[in-house]
Amino acid sequence: MWATQRFVADKTAHAEVKDISGSEHTCLTQALLFRAQYKLKDMFKPATIKVFSIFAIILSVVGLLISILLTQQYGPAFFVGITTWLIFLWASYIGFRLSAYKLQDEEHKKVGVRIYLIILSFIAYLVFGLTIGPILSVVLLATLWGLKRNYDDWNEKFPTVTEE
Predict the structure, then answer these.
(1) What b/e string do you get for 96-132 counting C-beta neighbours within 10 Å, with b at 16 or more?
(2) How far apart are the two ends of the chain, measured CA to CA in Å?
(3) Is the confidence at residue 163, as pLDDT, over 60?
(4) Is 51 exposed, middle or buried (0-12, 13-18, 19+ CB in 10 A)?
């Protein structure tokens, strides 16, 4: 029966589902699922990535300042946190720069996911007092840096990939 139904969504997050008999009923959950998928696509647009990368830069600076304060108060055990937040700051800046490049949708999605992971790392740091660690920060930095370096090298060879 589901295979024969047609889903039509409108802008108010309601949907009509028509089956073979022609009866109509409202299906809010399917409409919300459709809108959630549509909103998810908006998360990886260059302008959205740019805004969230600026937000990630600010959060990285705040995390760095908190780690510096904790190092002064509790000793050198928090130097790992300082290193981690410096690397997250650098990765956020590279994500900001990459958001201005003319990338394909898949590359924008890669950049966006890494920026959102930096933001989630800060939330985990604040809520749980957990420094996600230098391994995650180095992995995020390496992938963003590699993507940026590939496009910079490509731009030197073929000047079609430019910043907006």
Answers:
(1) bbbbebebeeebbbbbbebbbbbbebbeebeeeeebb
(2) 49
(3) no
(4) middle
pLDDT for residue 107: 84
User: Quick check: 17 and 30 in contact, CB under 8 A?
Assistant: yes
Placement of tokens 């391994």 in the chain: 135
Range 14-43 average pLDDT: 53
- What span, in angstroms and rounded, lies between the C-alpha atoms of 84 and 86? 5
Domain boundaries, the chain: 2-41, 43-157
- How large is the angle between the packed helices 46-74 and 105-128, nearest 10 degrees? 30
User: pLDDT band at residue 21, thresholds of 50, 70 and 90?
Assistant: very low
In this predicted model, which residue has the larger pLDDT, 69 or 75?
A: 69
